[in-house]
Here is the input.
Amino acid sequence: MLLLANHFLKSFGPSLNKPNRKLSPLAAQKLMAHHWPGNVRELRNVIERALILENGSEIQAGSLPDFQLEARLQKGASPKASLPTGTLDEIVARHERDVIMAVLEHHNSSLARTAEYFKLSRHALRYRMNRLNIAIAESDDDTTVITGKSSAS
Here is the structure.
């Protein structure tokens, strides 16, 4: 999926006078966490929109749509909202992963501030992130680098 997203970045970048743009690690993680009900066309539109919105050299997660909000709006608009799929453990894990990613993004990838927000130790937060396939590498200044490790959801 990231290969296709990078293809769209290369395709749309020059025509929008924004060549050589890349996805930030958090943006890549956010794209990997989404379930893509609209498939390739949805991804294409998301990348094009992000290129239009983003002024920096990297596409940030904030330039991507709020997939959770859009899903809630779509559920509210349809008379028969679809039920989540999978086992209860899978559904809870997906939700927990989305919440952790959102709070990490809000705290600029700070593991310490994210753990403090959740009232967890950093060790407990790292354990949960590892269990949910949110790959991190903690640096000396306590920022995290999210890698493109795919979700098992």
Summary: The domain at 83-153 is CATH 1.10.10.60 (Arc Repressor Mutant, subunit A). The beta strands are 22-23, 58-59. Confidence is low (pLDDT under 50) at residues 147-153. The two ends are 15 Å apart (CA to CA).
